[in-house]
Amino acid sequence: MTTSRRNLIASLPLLLLCLFASPSRSIDDFHQAFPIVEPDPGHTKLRLSREGLEAIRRIKNPIAAVAVIGPYRSGKSFLLNQLLSLSCDEGFGVGHMRDTKTKGIWVWGTPVELDINGVKTSVFYLDTEGFESVGKSNVYDDRIFALATVLSSVLIYNLPETIREADISRLSFAVELAEEFYGRFALFYSHGEGEDVAFEPSKLLWLIQRDFLQGKSVQEMVNEALRRVPNQDGDRNIDQVNQIRESLAIMGDNSTAFSLPQPHLHRTKLCEMKDGELEQLYVSRRDKLKDLVSSIIRPKIVQGKSMNGEEFVAFLEQILEALNKGEIPSTGSLVEVFNKAILERCLKIYSEGMTKLNLPLTEESVQDAHGRSRETAMKVFDEQHFGRHHAKRSVMQLDEEIDKVFKHIIMANEYQSAKLCEALYSSCEDKMDQLQVLRLPSMAKFNAGFLQCNRSFEQECVGPSKAVYENRMMKMMGKSKSQFIKEYNHRLFNWLVTFSLVMVVLGRFIIKFILIEISAWILFIFLETYTRMFWSAESLYYNPVWHFIVATWETVVYSPVLDLDRWAIPVVLIIAILLLYWRCYGRRKHGSRWLLPVYNTTKNGTNRPRTD
C-alpha cells in the first residue's frame, strides 16, 4: 500500500504537467493542413469541413488569405510549401501521381502574422483543387475557382509556361461568378434592403512558371493576352473574346505578373531537395515572390470592414450556400447562352400573363397588366440570371423583347376594341334604321330604342377605339333622331287621317254606331279642313290640340306593357274576327238593343203594330 501511494504521489507532477501542457499541444495540432471545403461524392457541389473551420474561427485578428489556383499537377501545393518555408512532409500534401492530390480547398492551420499598415493581421494560405482533372464536372471546377476568388485577398493564378485563351476565359468566368454570388451574399447581409454592394476583387497575381526568361516579360505577356482584339468585320467569335476581356475590367489595376523558373529538372524529387540543391535562380525568384506577396497582401474586406475568424467563417458559409443553391452555368456553356435560356423563360412568363387578358380592355387595364407581368418576369430574371455585366445586356434584351410583345398586345387590343365597337355601332345603326320605318310611328318607342342603344354601347364598347366610335355614334344617333322627328309629325298626321276615314267606314257600315262615325268625321274635318283654313301644316304641330292628340296616340301605340307596332296585325285580326262573329251570330241571338243611338234601316218591319 505504501509503495503504491508513493508511486501515485510521484506521478502527480507528471499528470499536472500533461494537464497544463494540453492547450499548447492543441495549438501545435493546428500546425498542419486542414480541409475547409470538400467535394460531395458526385464532385458537383461543395460542403464545409468543420475541423478546418476551427483553425480559422479561433483567430481574433483581421484575416487575410492567399489562395493559389491553377490546373491540376501544376505544382500549387509545392509552391505554397515554398512560400510558407515548409517541407513536403510537414506542409501541404504534394502528389506525383497523375490524379490530383488536393480535394476541395485546404488551409494551413497556423497563420502567418504580419503587421500591415500598423494592423496585426493573420494571413492564411489556401490550397485549391486543380481544375481540368478527370472525373469532375466543369461546374465543380468553377465553384472552386469562384470560391477562392471571393475568399482570398491575394489570388495567385499559377500557370505553366504561357497564358492560354482557355486560362483567360476561366479566370473571367470565375470573377463573374464570384461577383454574382458575392452580390447575392451582400443582399442577404444587408437584410434584403436592396443595396447595390460592389464586389471587392482580390489582388490577382499571374504566376507564370517557365524555364526561359528571355524575350517578352510576363507582364507584357499578360497585357498582350488581355488586349482587345480588333474586330472591324464584326466577327461574333472575336466579339465573344473581347467580352471575356471586358469582364476582367473589374480587376482593374489589382493585377500584376511574376515569372518563376522551374526549381529543378527532376520534378519528382523536389520534396527531397534542400535550397542548396535547387536552381539558384529559382531560389532567388521565390524569395522575391514572397516579398511581393507580403507587399500586396491586405486584410479581407467585406461590406467595407475587415473580418476576424468567426466573421470569415460565417462569410464562407454564406457564399458556399449561395454557390450550391444557385443554378450556375459552366465555362463550357457560355454565360450568354445560360442567360438566354432564363430570358426565354421570363419572356414566356410575361407572354403567358398577357395572353390571359380577355381583350379588349381599357388602355389603363392593359398598362396595369403589363406592369404586373413585367415585374413578375423581372423578378424571376433577377433571381435566376447570372453575372452583373452580362445581366445588364440581358436585362436590356429582355426589356426589348417584352416591349415587342407588349406592342403586339396593344395592336391586338386595338383590333379587338375596333371589332367590338364596330359591331355595336352597326347594331345601333340597324336599330335606328328599323325605328325610322315603324308601321305605327312612336316617339316613346324611338326614345326607348335610342337610350337602349346608347346604354349598351357605353357599357360594352371598351378599349382604345371607344373614343373614336363614341364620336361616330353621337353623329349617327343625332342624325337619326333629327330625321325621325322631322318625319314623325308628317307620318302621324297621315296615320290619323287614314284612321279617321277607317273609323267613318266602321261606324257607318260595320258597327253602325253613329257616335263613332261622328267623332271620326270631326277628326277628319279638323285635320283636313280646319287646319288648312286657319293654320299651316307646321303650325299645327305646336297647337295644344295636336299635343293632346299626340299624347293620346303615344299612350295607345306604345307602353312598357304593350307595343302596338309589334302587335298591330294580330290585334286587327282579332278585332275583325270578333266583329265578323258579332255581325253574323250576335245580332240574331241578342237582338239589336243598344243603349246608344244606332242606325235603324228596317222599313215596314214585322213588329210594326197593325192599324185595322
From TrEMBL:
<keyword id="KW-0732">Signal</keyword>
<keyword id="KW-0547">Nucleotide-binding</keyword>
<keyword id="KW-0812">Transmembrane</keyword>
<feature type="signal peptide">
    <location>
        <begin position="1"/>
        <end position="26"/>
    </location>
</feature>
<dbReference type="InterPro" id="IPR036543">
    <property type="entry name" value="Guanylate-bd_C_sf"/>
</dbReference>
<feature type="transmembrane region" description="Helical">
    <location>
        <begin position="567"/>
        <end position="585"/>
    </location>
</feature>
<dbReference type="InterPro" id="IPR015894">
    <property type="entry name" value="Guanylate-bd_N"/>
</dbReference>
<dbReference type="InterPro" id="IPR030386">
    <property type="entry name" value="G_GB1_RHD3_dom"/>
</dbReference>
<dbReference type="Pfam" id="PF02263">
    <property type="entry name" value="GBP"/>
</dbReference>
<dbReference type="GO" id="GO:0005525">
    <property type="term" value="F:GTP binding"/>
</dbReference>
<feature type="domain" description="GB1/RHD3-type G">
    <location>
        <begin position="60"/>
        <end position="180"/>
    </location>
</feature>
<comment type="similarity">
    <text>Belongs to the TRAFAC class dynamin-like GTPase superfamily. GB1/RHD3 GTPase family.</text>
</comment>
<protein>
    <recommendedName>
        <fullName>GB1/RHD3-type G domain-containing protein</fullName>
    </recommendedName>
</protein>
<keyword id="KW-0378">Hydrolase</keyword>
<keyword id="KW-0472">Membrane</keyword>
<dbReference type="InterPro" id="IPR003191">
    <property type="entry name" value="Guanylate-bd/ATL_C"/>
</dbReference>
<dbReference type="Pfam" id="PF02841">
    <property type="entry name" value="GBP_C"/>
</dbReference>
<dbReference type="GO" id="GO:0003924">
    <property type="term" value="F:GTPase activity"/>
</dbReference>
<keyword id="KW-0342">GTP-binding</keyword>
<dbReference type="InterPro" id="IPR027417">
    <property type="entry name" value="P-loop_NTPase"/>
</dbReference>
<keyword id="KW-1133">Transmembrane helix</keyword>
